[in-house]
Specification:
The complex is a heterodimer. By secondary structure, chain A is mainly beta. Chain A is 11% helix and 42% strand. Chain A is built from 14 helices and 62 strands. In chain A, strand 6 (107-108) and strand 7 (113-114) form a beta hairpin. Chain A starts with a helix and ends in an 8-residue tail after the last helix. The model of chain A is unreliable at 1-10 and 475-499 (pLDDT under 50). Chain B is mainly α. Chain B is built from seven helices and five strands; from the N terminus they run ββαββααααβαα. In chain B, the strands form two sheets. Chain B has a three-stranded antiparallel sheet with strand order 4-3-5. In chain B, helix 1 (41-61) packs antiparallel against helix 3, helix 3 (91-121) runs antiparallel to helix 4 (127-141) and helix 3 (91-121) packs across helix 6. Chain B is elongated, with a radius of gyration of 22 Å. Classes of the chains: A mainly beta, B mainly alpha. Chain A binds chain B through residues 9-10, 12-14, 16-17, 19-20, 22-24, 27, 30-31, 33-34, 53, 55-56, 68, 121-122, and chain B through 39-40, 43-44, 47-48, 50-51, 54-55, 57-58, 61-62, 70-72, 74, 170, 174, 177, 181.
């Protein structure tokens, strides 16, 4: 029983069986969900896998993530990569055979910044859906496709090149953006075809005869006339742009109509065409060379075509000027000319040659010939001249009549041995031409140069550039009278000289120098004779014979002093450069000059001195004896009160080496005062002392010698003192006797009212030892201050006293602090005590009384 | 062969371990409902084994982790993860994961199914072999949670990170379910039935 009951119980199906059923359901649902979410596998061929990472590169459609690249493989031909990607199943319908994939990577350029999001999230692939059959393998395009979506008028614009236009470049009408460039592609004939979309509200502005031109960037027109800068808008600077006009007449443009893009507004202007045949295009530039009529610009060179042996130029001519172009109209190159007459067509130098239009008559024409040869101006007469030599005639030479330009040269040809010079005479001057006319060449400069002078005749400045041809008349001139023709003016003068006998003088000199036979002899820079001979004498001297011309023979006297006037006398020293020459001729030939100085002694034998100074004894040679020649160099100055009166010529040691001997010279007017017995010479050196700096300039120029004039007999040897004389002759010399003299020595100052009025020359102990005597010098201007009753005391250093009233510091001067010194004061007395004489002896007061300082008598200076 | 408690007309309260006569419905000591054997033990075990087997299919086919590095999610199934580990020169770790995540769950299911089948069909297995197999299954069962344990730590650490983000995939749920179900299956199998069927 119980067993049966158990068995029954076990047959009951446990509710636990719901669990596997639920689990099964869940598992099936989970797997289905996973399968449905798993993408559709596709393959995309790319040229390169740059920036594509499997698992990270996503595929977007309209910004929506629809898939991811799962794998990157090389393709079978190894020329690119094949991506395996999974596209979400709900985006499966986007996968058609015409759908386009491309890679979006960050791109920044002047015209656009795109794919910035790719900077952050990495590159991604974009899908563009196009209807078609479903497909699972695709080939990516390298560039994002541009598509024209939106409404408007679609136009096609044909251009030679894209220029700076790009997709998105705006289209302007009167500077209003009315549309943009949507797409461009290269046409079969290698021209660029752009698709423009004009916004519908502006579509009516485009007429079937509208002209489009490029307004990209800045339109700069820089010429001699000025500068013009034009830009459509700032955006067009960057993006480029197209502008168009809208003529009043004409029908509205059809959708899809083709237009031509012109390069600029000027090119787009409606113009007439003129074609010109020419041999050479030298100097002609497309879009630069202009047609000019009386200076006005009437047309522009647009195109140059080469046709076998000539060029065909195509000009655009402004319609208002088209009436200028008739059958007889001439075109000529406007060659730039820079001449003395002025500057013509200068712009041709910079921007190329322009072409001038010379209108003629006849029926309207469109074809012309431009000759490269130079052409005579209208109405001029051409002539051919024969010449054996050109003598500087050039194509730019002019024909002048009495210096006035009347024509020009067209061509120069060599014809056998002769030159054929083709010239023209301008219309107003044709009357100058008659049977008596002849032409001759004007040399730029006719120079007759000799040592005696220079004759220059010039054909004018113009002739320096190109020798002009002068037009002249054969006029019957009176026959030349019998007259002797001189080679030059100089010859004529020579000839007029009276032929009296010259006076011969023999000169002795140490050297010949640059003298030669024929060297001139000057008197006051006038040639009065010449060298006729020279020979070496037995004394190893040179004897020079000179002839003084007859009329000047009286000039040479016993007082005549001769000197070399040859060449250039150049003297360079620290004081400057001195250049001396008698005359240009004497530089070349050498020369002798002389002067008569009666104040100088006669010379026994006429001598030739080497310099003028020597000859005229303008310089007195003196000798200075010095202990040492510190800082003295040859050329050092000898000065008196700052004025140079001489110089040192040489510095050398004496034979016994004990001293220096300085050869010096004194200049002319000063020598008589300074070459006296009492004259003093001393060396001025740089001094730095408590009293100040002295002669700092000597540091640079070297030391100099100071001189003082003197009296007495003239002598020529002096002593050069190492320092200035310590006192002048007028100074008062006195003596001050003291029991002891601390810190007073030679050079210590003598103070009067704390001012130095003199100097202690020396101190010495009295021979009996009773005291010390100081030799004191008082400057001449202060000598009257010293009276017989004057009090002298020691003024050395600092006097410092400490009392109940405080401290008292007394110091005479900074100098006395160092050198010590003496001071004196003179009491007031009526009458003043006698002035002292030299050698007067004072006794130094051993004490100092402050009341002395308060003495301030007015002491008369007798 | 020792007589079982059932044969002796006794049963044990599983809660207070009070030995009582088999006819008692409720434990005289703790008043709990008592059974001599776990009721429907074999049915329940079968049901759990089947459910676990079903759950193992998506657990192995669907990604167990979704690892996003720099925003690019990369799903990994258990097997692809093991292959990745192996390719990353970590064969030991790969082996551990392989054993814990693939060998053990399957082995458990197969073992349990074998025990149950042997009870049904009287396949000649000694009691000793069955019990040893069961103990082994009971022991290794918990190690299967290793994968989920690592995953949960990774999610806690890297969740919603900008650079790297780890999320559990649908496979993780299925795998967890499968492991839990096998644990329950081992629990619901009343091992005493082995000896009951012996006679």
């Amino acid at each position: 029983m119980s067993q049966q009951a158990v068995t029954r119980k076990e047959r009951i199906i446990s509710p636990i069986w719901l669990l596997p059923i639920i689990a099964l359901g869940m598992a099936i649902w989970l797997l289905y969900k996973t399968w449905s979410e798993a993408g559709v596998p596709i393959t995309i061929d790319f040229a390169s896998a740059q920036g594509i990472v499997a698992g990270q590169t996503h595929i977007y459609y309209q910004g929506l993530d629809i898939g991811v690249v799962t794998k990157v493989n090389l393709n079978e031909s190894l020329t690119g990569v094949q991506l395996e990607a999974e596209i979400d199943r709900d985006a499966e319908q986007l996968l058609t055979e015409h759908s386009i994939f491309w890679l979006v990577s960050p791109k920044a350029s002047l015209t656009e910044i795109s794919g910035l999001d790719a900077l952050v999230g990495g590159n991604y692939i974009e899908l563009q859906y196009n209807e078609g059959e479903p497909a699972l393998s695709f080939v990516a395009v390298p560039e994002p496709p541009t598509r024209i979506d939106g409404k408007g008028l679609l136009l096609h614009l044909r251009a030679d090149e894209l220029g700076s236009l790009d997709v998105g470049s705006p289209i302007y009408f009167k500077k209003i953006p009315v549309g943009e460039v949507k797409r461009y592609q290269l046409d079969d004939d290698h021209s660029v075809v752009m698709d423009l979309l004009v916004k519908p509200e502006y579509a009516h502005l485009v007429k079937d005869h509208s002209r489009f031109w490029d307004v990209s960037g800045i339109d700069a027109d820089i010429s001699l006339q000025g500068m013009r800068l034009q830009s459509e808008s700032l955006a067009s600077l960057i993006l480029g742009g197209v502008a168009f006009d809208s003529p009043d007449q004409g029908l509205q443009a059809r959708a899809g109509q083709h237009f031509t893009l012109f390069e600029g507004r000027d090119a787009a202007t409606r113009l007439s065409r003129v074609s010109v045949v020419t041999d050479t295009v030298e100097g002609l530039n497309v879009d630069r060379t202009r047609l000019r009529y009386k200076g006005a610009e009437v047309g522009l060179l647009r195109q140059v075509d080469y046709q076998q042996d000539h060029y065909l130029l195509s000009f655009s001519v402004k319609s208002e000027y088209i009436s200028l172009f008739k059958e007889d109209t001439e075109l000529r190159r406007l060659q730039p000319q820079i001449g003395l007459e002025g500057v013509k067509h200068l712009e041709g130098l910079l921007g190329g040659i322009d072409i001038g239009v010379y209108p003629g008559s006849g029926a309207p024409a469109q074809s012309f010939t431009l000759s490269s040869a130079k052409q005579a101006p209208p109405g001029a007469q051409t002539l051919v001249l024969n010449a054996s030599q050109l003598h500087g005639i050039e194509a730019s030479s002019v024909v002048i009549y009495r210096g006035f330009p009347v024509g020009g040269i067209l061509d120069i040809r060599l014809d056998g041995n002769e030159f054929d010079i083709e010239i023209y005479l301008e219309k107003p001057y044709l009357s100058l031409l008659n049977d008596k006319s002849y032409f001759h060449i004007v040399s730029p400069l006719e120079v007759e140069a000799s040592l005696f002078g220079l004759d220059i005749s010039s054909g004018g400045i113009r002739s320096f550039i190109a020798s002009p041809i002068a037009l002249d008349y054969m006029e019957s001139t009176p026959p030349p009278t019998e007259q002797r023709l001189f080679a030059s003016k100089h010859d004529a003068h020579e000839h007029q000289r009276p032929s009296s006998a010259p006076k011969r003088v023999s000169l002795r000199t140490e050297r010949l120098g640059s003298l030669s036979v024929g060297s001139p002899v000057y008197f006051k820079q006038l040639q009065v004779g010449e060298v006729v001979a020279y020979q070496l004498t037995s004394q190893q001297d040179v004897s020079i014979d000179i002839d003084i011309y007859g009329e000047h023979r009286a000039l040479v006297t016993d007082y005549s002093r001769f000197w070399h006037a040859s060449g250039v006398n150049l003297e360079i020293n620290t004081n400057g450069v001195s250049l001396q020459s008698e005359s240009l001729r004497s530089i070349a030939l050498g020369g002798i000059a002389f002067e008569n100085l009666e104040q100088l002694p006669k010379l026994s034998l006429p001598r030739l001195f080497s310099t003028k100074e020597d000859a005229l004894q303008r310089r007195l040679n003196v000798t200075l004896i010095a202990e040492h020649a510190q800082g003295l160099k040859p050329g050092a100055a000898i000065r008196y009160l700052g004025k140079q009166i001489g110089r040192v010529k040489q510095v050398h040691l004496a034979d016994n080496l004990s001293h220096f001997e300085l050869d010096a010279e004194l200049y002319h007017p000063y020598s008589k005062h300074f070459a006296r017995e009492q004259s003093r010479y001393w060396l001025e050196t740089t001094e730095l002392s408590l009293e100040g700096a002295k002669n700092l300039g000597n540091l640079i120029t070297g030391n100099y010698i100071e001189a003082r004039p003197g009296h007495g007999r003239p002598i020529q040897q002096f002593e050069l003192a190492a320092r200035p004389p310590r006192y002048s002759d007028e100074a008062l010399l006195i003596r001050v006797k003291a029991v002891h003299l601390a810190s007073v020595s030679a050079d210590s100052p003598l103070l009067y009212k704390q001012q130095a009025v003199g100097r202690i020359l020396s101190t010495r102990v009295i021979s009996d030892g009773s005291g010390i005597v100081a030799e004191v010098m008082i400057e001449p201007e202060y000598r009257h201050l010293v009276r017989a009753n004057s009090v002298f005391w020691q003024a050395s250093g600092v006097d410092f006293s400490l009392g109940f009233g405080g401290a008292d510091l007394h110091m005479d001067s900074l100098e006395t602090l160092v050198k010590g010194g003496l001071a004196f004061a003179t009491p007031e007395s009526v009458p003043f005590a006698d002035a002292v004489t030299a050698g007067f002896e004072f006794t130094l007061s051993p004490t100092f009384d402050k009341t002395w300082l308060k003495w301030s008598p007015s002491i008369p200076n007798q | 062969m020792q007589p079982s408690a059932k044969q002796a007309g006794l049963k044990l309260c599983p809660h207070c371990h009070f030995v009582q006569p088999i006819a008692e419905k409720h434990c005289p000591r703790c008043s709990m409902r008592t059974h001599s054997r776990i009721p429907y033990s074999i049915q329940k075990t079968w049901a759990l084994i089947i459910t676990a087997t079903i759950a193992l299919v998506p657990a192995n086919l669907l990604p167990i982790t979704v690892l996003s590095t720099r925003g690019a999610p990369k799903p990994e199934t258990i097997m692809s993860g093991i292959i990745n580990l192996f390719q990353s020169d970590m064969p030991v770790v790969a082996s551990v994961v392989f054993i814990a995540s693939i060998v053990v769950p399957f082995a458990k299911l197969v073992g349990l199914a074998l025990i149950l089948a042997s009870l049904h069909m009287h396949i000649e297995l000694s009691d000793r072999q069955r019990v040893q197999m069961f103990r082994f299954i009971d022991f290794i069962g918990r190690w299967s949670m290793l994968d989920l344990f690592v995953l949960s730590i990774m999610i806690a650490v890297f969740s919603h990170h900008k650079i790297i983000d780890v999320a559990a995939g649908p496979g993780a749920t299925a795998f967890g379910l499968a492991v839990v179900l096998t644990l329950f299956a081992a629990k619901t199998l009343d091992t005493r039935l082995i000896w009951d069927y012996q006679t």
